[in-house]
Amino acid sequence: MKKNCVLAAVFLACGCAASPDKGMVSKTGEIDTEWVEEGVTANYVFARGIGAADQALANKTQRLATARNAAIVNAQYNMLSFLKGVQLEGGITVEKAIETDSVLATKIDQFIRGAQVVRTEWTSDDGCVLVLRLAKSSLAGSGLKL
Question: Checking phi first, is residue 122 left (phi over 0); if not, alpha (psi -120 to 50) or beta?
Fold first, then answer.
């Protein structure tokens, strides 16, 4: 019973800390020095990403777009890392299952690509920090236990 309460508190803390309600960039344009990388709430899985642009690019729009694209890729990687640790109905992890099941690997890739950007912030040096959100309902029927 005590172990279940501790696990519930950990999931609750991760879900709240990773929700997109809290900003990631200070008013001075600096990145916060602490945040939870991914989180799970009742309906969503969240992942954050950070990206930087080549400062040699002369055009600010190009720097912002490049940083945002890099942040999306980083957030997708973070979400994939989280999902690989999730257990399937048979008791094995997603990581082990995708080694032998290319259909599952394709589904996981589609889930992650379907994640929605829900918060985007730019830093003073044109870097980008963003939050991706994946609805748990989109995972229905996949066998993932979240």
Answer: beta
DSSP state of 33: S
d(CA 104, CA 94): 8
Burial of residue 144 (number of CB atoms within 10 Å: 0-12, 13-18, 19+): buried
Instruction: Give me the average pLDDT of each 10-residue run along the chain (146 residues).
Output: 29 37 70 68 89 92 96 93 78 80 80 91 93 86 64
Listed by start position, the domains of the chain span 2-136
Model confidence, pTM: 0.73
C-alpha neighbours within 13 Å on the C-beta side of residue 41 = 14
Give the Cα separation of 38 and 11 in Å (integer): 10
Contact 77, 115 (CB under 8 A): no
Please identify which residue in the block is written with the tokens 């094995």. 92
Beta strand spans in 15-142 (E): 38-40, 44-51, 116-122, 128-135
